[in-house]
Amino acid sequence: MSDLDDAPLQHVEAGVDEIPIKATNQQNLDVILRIPVDVQVVLGSATMPVSNLLKLGRGAVVPLDHRVGEPVDVVVNGRLIARGEIVVVEDDNSRFGVSLTEIVGPTGSIE
Questions:
Q1: d(CA 66, CA 46)
Q2: Residues 70-102: pLDDT tens digits?
Q3: Cα dist. 29→1, 37, 74, 77, 94 in Å?
Q4: Is residue 21 within a helix (H) or strand (E), and if so which, with residue range?
Q5: Domain segments of the chain: what residues?
Q6: What is the CATH number of domain 39-103?
Q7: Which residues face 19 on adjacent strands?
Q8: pTM reported for the whole predicted model
Q9: pLDDT under 50: residue ranges of the chain
Q10: Running DSSP on this structure, what letter comes out for residue 61?
């Protein structure tokens, strides 16, 4: 239950008809909640010359700059928002997930 549900119903003049503010706010919130975002979990990165990249084949291993056990970055629409640990999804042992351990504040600080 949100704060919008507890707010008193108010009206705004809109021509001949009156529009309830509570309903308008809920509709705006519903629109915002449907916006798709791109979520990425960054396991690490690597830099290599194009010549080495072209030599990669099936089964090749590319060493990353992160080590096992280090937190991974959670990035939304290109912006770091959190850090977390890789976990195995309980319902499906063939899938991985991320358990968030730190939330990055708007100024880049950890909360």
A1: 9
A2: 999 999 998 999 999 998 888 888 898 999 999
A3: 13, 15, 24, 20, 35
A4: helix 21-33
A5: 3-33, 39-103
A6: 2.30.330.10
A7: 12
A8: 0.60
A9: 1-4, 7-14, 16, 111
A10: -
